[in-house]
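Quick review question:
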């Protein structure tokens, strides 16, 4: 009898934990927008590779800057639409916290990119971009589905590989394009398949639990 009560109590604790985590889940990012961003990266790779007049470091950088701008427009445009549909003023602002927590890693990435460009060292850019973008994913470990963390680890591993592999050239867009197409496609799929319904109230009990408590 005591063992049954302990089993029921542990089950309630697990359900409570799941409900709390579900309430903390951040729903502002669009999986579709993220997948579109990956597609844009792949298209840009084809253009940057095939058009010979673009085979200079500065023009390649300009091309990736366009990709970045398009991805930001898609993802943060969708985030803005989601935000303005929310109700509750201060509470709605608090819901943006997961998106804001990743900004330091992205800001460091921008500063390192500028420093490398100013020193004419373009070949390290891919590794820096991948690694710090992957690091930014760690900020979502409590607010997005767990698979997103594995996508972040994938970006970090790819970034380290680019940084340590001799011969990686900034004029070869394929490492960047393939990694970001793969990561954004998988990340978007993970976001799309995540539960979209609102979580139940924490004080809600099932009929089975109510019957069990009544019988006790």
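Suggested answer, residue by residue:
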């Amino acid at each position: 009898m005591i063992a049954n009560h302990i089993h029921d109590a542990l089950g309630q604790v697990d359900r409570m934990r799941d409900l709390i985590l579900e309430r903390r889940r951040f729903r502002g990012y669009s999986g579709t927008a993220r997948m579109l961003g990956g597609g844009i990266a792949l298209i840009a790779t084809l253009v940057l590779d095939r058009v010979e007049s673009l085979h200079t470091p500065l023009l390649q950088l300009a091309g990736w800057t366009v990709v970045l701008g398009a991805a930001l427009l898609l993802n943060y445009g969708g985030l803005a639409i989601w935000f303005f549909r929310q109700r509750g003023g201060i509470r709605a602002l608090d819901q943006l916290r997961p998106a804001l927590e990743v900004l330091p890693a992205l800001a460091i990435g921008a500063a390192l990119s500028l420093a490398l460009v100013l020193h004419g060292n373009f070949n390290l850019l891919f590794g820096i971009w991948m690694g710090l973008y992957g690091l930014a994913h760690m900020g979502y470990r409590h607010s997005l589905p767990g698979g997103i963390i594995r996508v972040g680890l994938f970006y970090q591993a790819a970034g380290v590989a680019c940084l340590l592999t001799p011969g990686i050239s900034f004029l070869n867009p394929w490492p960047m394009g393939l990694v970001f197409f793969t990561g954004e496609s998988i990340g978007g799929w993970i976001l799309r398949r995540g539960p979209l319904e609102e979580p139940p109230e924490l004080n809600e009990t099932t009929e089975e639990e109510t019957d069990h408590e009544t019988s006790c």
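Why it works: The mean pLDDT is 81. The CA atoms of residues 109 and 132 lie 6 Å apart.
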